[in-house]
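Objective 1b. Sequence-to-structure analysis of Disease resistance R13L4/SHOC-2-like LRR domain-containing protein.
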Amino acid sequence: MTTRLELGGQGLTSLSGISLPATLEYLDLYDNRLTSVPDELWSLSGLRVLNLATNRLTSVPPAIGALRNLHTLDLGHNELSVLPDELGELSGLTEYLYVSDNRLTEFPAALCSLGRLKYLGCTDNRIATLPEDLSGLTSLREFRLYGNGLTGIPESMGTLSALRELHLRKNRLTTLPSSIGDLSELRQLDLRENRLTSLPESITRLSKLDKLDLRWNKELREPPWLADFEARGCMVLR
């Protein structure tokens, strides 16, 4: 039986007096007022799910890298300006990593080591650029980057061969790399609220794409092949 501790929405300002069993596998501290957590949390080597979302955390210590059995980690809706490189050591992180709605100005290159991760949410931060090499994210199926200040997407995005959803809404993109057409499993591509003026023709190779959202790109010159996309059943939103 999974050892669980669910303390969400309790108004906690600390974990003083709360026992964290060494056998704990699931810890939910969502929606409290925590500014820090005790060091003993990072020694819970059997922990598989950790939810620290919607607190007041300003930092995460490097010791988090010891949680090698963690498959789900939620750090969203805090006040984090940096993430430790040790997140890249979480080799068990397969399901979900959520760091949205923080104060991040850089996308940690260490996250590109998470080769088994399926979902990565890094929305609503202040990230202007991505690492040049994203190729380590080989299992990623859903990548959410909307609401940042991204000015470009690296060519290596096209190496994410398992990707099914790419969400880039509300950035500052004027172009996309031609490698976007290599995302052979892509189903959804959300490009709303950018500054795109054109689209790479390589997008026509995305045979599994069923939704392409182009709304609120005021300067976009629509290519003629959009009609072909619609004819084969892809929803194109202009």
